[in-house]
Amino acid sequence: MESQHQQLHVIFLPHLTPGHMNPLVDTARLFAKHGVNVTIITTQTNALLFKKAVDNDLFSGYSIRTCEIQFPSSHVGLPDGVENIKDATSHEMLGKIILGITMLQSQIELMFHDLQPDCIVSDMLYPWTVESAAKLGIPRLYYYSSSYFSSCATHFIKKHKPYENLVSDTQVFSIPGLPHNIEITSLQLQESVRTKNEYSDYFDAVYESEGRSYGTLYNSFHELENDYEQLYKSTMGIKAWSVGPVSASVNKGHNEDLSIEPNLIKWLNSKPNDSVLYVSFGSLTRLCYAQIVEIAHGLENSGHSFIWVVRKKDGDEDKGGFLHDFEERMKENQKGYIIWNWAPQLLILDHPATGGIVTHCGWNSILESLSVGLPMITWPMFAEQFYNEKLILDVLKIGVSVGSKVNKFWSSVGEDALVRREEIAKVVRILMGREDESGEMRRRVRNFGDAAKKSIQEGGSSYNNLMQLIGELKSLKTSRGLEKQ
Question: Which of 9, 213, 252, 420 has its CB 3.0 to 4.6 Å from that of 142, i.e. a possible disulfide?
């Protein structure tokens, strides 16, 4: 073992929202497994979300710890323990959580100074860490928790603004600069891109900090997005390392708690292979009641078995007990299984009975599905999810679209933007059916699944990238040490 003094010390700074936090923490754990001394900085309540995983790693002898900082709940008028974007129940509350997160900067900078790390791996949403790293004279790696494809699409739309002179919001245009012809409408772009809003300047700062970073870490793998990995490197002119899928690297032998859903496994075991559709919209999506009713009917009318994860807050308007009655009916006919709030997702995806997924096109869910060879029904909601949908449909060709049209965080969409039950039933039949189209998608996605597994094994592309990056950071540390002498 290297002495503590020689060992490379890297600080990881995850953003306080699940889609960003989970892959960054998994990446930190991966570094620790390869002999790096790792510190993760987060708030007390967020630390609890991955405490078990970090404790297991520590117990296995890896050098990893969490340093906790105080979230300014009382300053921003939030109840104690509300420290993550997923906990917001209204736009007002969301604003307070975001304000609280921006107030953490001084505490974090103090920790950087005290801990004197050799490198900072910062979530993209902390643009100020570029200056922090510069002050310490160390590299800052920008952690992007989505696809190269979405990053390239964002770049070229920002550069060329092809949405500016269109006749209407629903007019289709091609994204310039990409190797594939990708068509999108301006309604499917992020709100802060379409019209200047309170977040536009912030996202400009995020984007600008990327170009000033030492390099970028991607939770992706070379065989999946080769064209876009190359395009990203040549366009941005900075280094990039694909080290994914990180969840598959560190969560082998899923240790998810099954005691919560013992009946679920029994139910899955009773189903034929590839016969169950898994439906989940991630931790941040909120659906209006009218859309929930359409989903229920669409799933039932498709004739295929399904597991549907319903967030408690989505059921808030269930005044007439519609969802409750639906759940009872599904239990009786054994066609559907509803899980409230939290689901052991990796375990469900990996079960032989599961044959496909309805996804909001969050990058973590895409990678998890793809790693186990599952084709997808795409239903993007907000942020870069509409770009990820295009990657799945037009580049990788491993999914079918439900026809989602508007990019809106917590959409208060009107009736016209609802996806109707007929559409839902139709795409479920296409994906879960035994037609040629479905067979082709399955074959392709299984090949990507095999490539994903190989990439993280010794000698695989992601494994080699990680080794190369750690080596580079060590030699930077050595040369800094020599300069000081």
Answer: 213
Contact 100, 459 (CB under 8 A): no
**Left if phi > 0, otherwise alpha if psi is -120 to 50, otherwise beta: which for 272?**
beta
| Distance of alpha carbon 128 from alpha carbon 135, whole angstroms | 11
Task: Count CB neighbours of 5 within 10 A.
Answer: 7
Q: Which of 26, 57, 118, 123 is catalytic?
A: 123
Exposure string (b/e) for 401-414, b if CB count within 10 Å is 16 or more?
A: bbebbbbebbbebe
Report yes or no on whether pTM surpasses 0.85.
yes
Q: What's the token pair of residue 17?
A: 């929202």
Q: Which of 462, 285, 247 is nearest to 368 (CA)?
A: 247
Q: Which of 9, 20, 155, 351 does the annotation list as catalytic?
A: 20
Coil, strand or helix: which one is 243?
coil
Residue 123 annotated to the active site: yes
- Alpha-carbon distance of 8 to 141, in angstroms, equals 15
Q: Is 67 helix (H, G, I), strand (E, B) or coil?
A: strand
Tokens describing residue 265: 């496994």
pLDDT in tens, the chain (485 residues): 555 567 999 999 999 999 999 999 999 999 999 999 999 999 999 999 999 999 999 999 999 999 999 999 999 999 999 999 999 988 899 999 999 999 999 999 999 999 999 999 999 999 999 999 999 999 999 999 999 999 999 999 999 999 998 999 999 999 999 999 999 999 999 988 988 888 889 999 999 999 999 999 999 999 999 999 999 999 999 999 999 999 988 886 545 555 657 899 999 999 999 999 999 999 899 888 899 999 999 999 999 999 999 987 776 666 678 999 999 999 999 999 999 988 999 999 999 999 999 999 999 999 999 999 999 999 999 999 999 999 999 999 999 999 999 998 875 555 667 999 999 999 999 999 988 888 999 999 999 999 999 999 999 999 999 999 999 999 999 999 888 77
Radius of gyration of the chain from its Cα atoms, rounded to whole angstroms: 22
Task: Say how far residue 217 (Cα) sits from the centre of its chain.
Answer: 14
